[in-house]
# Entry
Amino acid sequence: MTKSPVNLEKQQSIGIITIDYPPVNALSQSVRQGLVDGIKELESDDSIKAIIIRCAKRTFIAGADIKEFGSTPLEPHLPDVVNRIEASTKPVVASMFGTSLGGGFEVALACHYRVALADVKVGLPEVNLGLIPGAGGTQRLPRIVGTNKALEMVTGGKHYSVNALSEYNLFDAVFESGSDLDQQTIAYVNAMIDNGETLIKRVGEQPVNDTVEDWDTAIGALTKKSRGKLAPVVAAKLLKRTTNLSIEEGMKLEREEFLSLRTSEQSAALRFAFGAERTAAKTQFDAQPLSVKTVGIIGGGTMGSGIVTAFLSSGFEVILIEQNDEGLKAGTDRINGNFNANVKRGRMSQTQVDGYLAKLTTSTDYQSLSECDLVVEAVFENMDVKKTIFSTLSQVCKPSCILATNTSYLDINEIASVVERPEQVIGMHFFSPANIMKLLEVVKAEKSSEQAVVTAMAVAKQLKKISVLVGVCFGFAGNRMYTRYGREVQQMLLEGASVSQVDQALVNWGMAMGPLAVGDMSGIDIGVSARRAQPFPAFDKGYFKPSELMVDAGRLGRKTKAGYYDYSNNPRGEADPVVAELISEQSKALEIKQQTFDDETIVSRALLALISEGLQLLKDGIVQRASDIDVIWLHGYGFPRHKGGPMFQASQVGKEKVSQVLSNYRASEGALIWPEVDVDLIQ
Ligand code: 3H9
# Structure
């Protein structure tokens, strides 16, 4: 018989139920059963006057067990468990710390008393998994914090601190963080018993005291903000429908909606994304990461200053190197600007920022990098310049120092060839703005040591970034796929689709931005010059021709007030007939067959191009696993999270269909553009 993850203990007149189910005490079937059994046993023991629910190790219950969501729900179901707790004839006290989320928070809401350490975080993050709270969260929370706050908490899915909820009667006692929670909880409960204050306060029996004034406006705004995500809207409509119902009626409707969302494709995609992000950081390497405290950053441009800001914000000592004093001044101005924006938005206090900036030194002398544990080069994309820098680093840095380049496209093997210890050289490819974007591609070059790789991944974790291990090729994983995606978009323009039609179709499908609007924002010349440094694929006569046309016409994007769109009258950009004309003339010159496009064709073709390149990356061993590609696209390229990522989409479409559509494209455009792929690599 397997040991139950729920233990019972009696300390005089207090019964203590302990959940010990690592890593986060999720509410698996065995935990749910243990809770029901525990309450039943303690209730029937006359010597027990009150019950505590506590958790072992790192946190109070972090939610329902996500791993169980793919299979048939097993009894006892969580709604029945929380109702059983609330129905207890003896007062039940939740002893909370860490992150009490989702089902964990719902258990706490069903308890008659809640005590917590001051740094506890609570919340109902179910919408982030494409779900709504399914164990009374939508019904009990409004009875404590009111419908308006509950609407915000349930539909936003954020974590809340004790301070953020201090105006509500959510906690009966809050203890100093770092203090002994068990001791404090027992003392609190003993005092309750001694003072005869063991009233059973059932939240479910309380009325809801407020309502949202204009539900339709609130739901309308939420629908717009959710951009196709179902769960927040379902949650809001449920709150509206149940606001005057009893807890039993409300929970019945809540359960129906929860079960229906649980089997939705969106929830499957979001749960997949949750798992994929956690898997991405895992490698098969045994090496131990080196300790990194001092980091050198070379280059204080937009990228470099973003990287400096990211390292400083995570407590590292940073040395910024620039060519001259003007460069250093411009770099520090950018860093200050990044921090000021954080202060302005309330993300950081000025005192915090002052502390971070105290750890920044600047220099024009590479010798100052001699004691760095890690150096990240972030200068412009030029192989000769990078080689000169790395050869200097090889001379000045200590032997254990990891030498990283932030190149987006260049061959890291070639960069490593100029240093004495090429095993120390890796890629750390940040995404812009580096202090905000969560993605980091860690690039293992031919000779990079496993230790250099695991160190970079450990550093990424400290930076609160999601790192994905990739190999060397033009553009690594993300930009190589982005190039393939861009090629298809550009080809559709040549075949007769309009700029706004392509962008709009992809945005309506869920992409954060249209690829042509992105080109205008980042500068069309950037991609053009990166591609011009590569041999032109002669087999692809239209290869990125529209972007070449834009650059030749001086239309570099927003910075020149004209690119694929015209920005002279409207900062958001307007369609420009000149662009359509330029592209149409080019199509004629290249004799490209014209066709009519609908949104579905545009999306499917762009997506298939991504899937095709993703399968190539897997075959070439550039990524460890298909889900890593999805993580890269979710965090680096604005792919809609509720669609899981391109490879998740491939698995939804199915191997057979993917194979069939790819062979159709292969038949019309040739195997050099649509190569043979192994669809069995789709998971
Ligand atoms: C829900 O509750 C529905 C109910 O309303 C109704 C039901 C009827 N289950 O993130 P980390 C694993 S929906 C199973 O790296 P951190 C995670 O996979 C749920 N496993 O740590 C990882 O495993 P591994 C609502 C879970 O410290 C390990 O724990 N709750 C669960 O950075 C460590 O995770 C949520 O959505 C789970 N619920 O962050 C909370 N949660 O080591 C989701 C985590 O094998 N969880 N794991 O890779 C989180 O937000 C973060 O994990 C948390 C810890 C903040 C708790």
Q: What stands out?
A: The chain is about 45% helix and 10% strand. The two ends are 34 Å apart (CA to CA). The pocket of (S)-3-Hydroxyhexanoyl-CoA is lined by residues 23-24, 26, 62-67, 78, 99, 101-103, 106, 125-126, 129, 131, 133-135, 137, 278 (CB under 6 Å). Residues 599-619 form the longest helix (21 residues).
